[in-house]
Amino acid sequence: MLARGGAAPLLSVSTMAQGTATPSPIRIRLFASLREQAGWAEQSWPWPEPGTAGAALTPHDLWDALALPGVPGEVRVAINQQFAAADTPLQPGDELAFLPPISGG
Fold it and tell me: Percent helix, strand, coil in the chain (nearest 5)?
């Protein structure tokens, strides 16, 4: 029974212990010319099953898997709105953004 004003848990402990909870997908966002070249602005990438080869994802892995346009070394990466290296391990539910090189004057 919940106390007055309490919220019900999203997942019960028994559900999590049985391994039936699905990890949150990664939200991938493209900006500016990358978005225009790829033809999409945002999509979800399912988190791999534990024990599979892709269970430790990095932004570089997803860049390759999505066959995104441009040169990966020149693209900025942000994870959860913080700049990061392309080899930073991702976690379920992360927001991954790819930003093209910016020039100006």
Answer: 20, 20, 60
What is residue 35's three-state secondary structure? helix
What is the longest distance spanned by two Cα atoms in the chain?
Answer: 62
Q: For position 104, what pLDDT does the model report?
A: 62
Rounded to the nearest 10°, the torsion over CA 80, 44, 33, 77 is 30
Between 86 and 15, residue with greater pLDDT: 86
**Fold type of domain 31-99:** Ubiquitin-like (UB roll) (3.10.20)
Contacts 24+ apart (CB under 8 A), 65-72: 66/28, 66/38, 68/30, 68/34, 68/38, 68/98, 69/34, 69/37, 69/38, 70/33, 70/34, 70/37, 70/100
Mean pLDDT score across all residues of the chain: 79
The answer to whether the CB of 99 falls within 8 A of the CB of 32 is yes
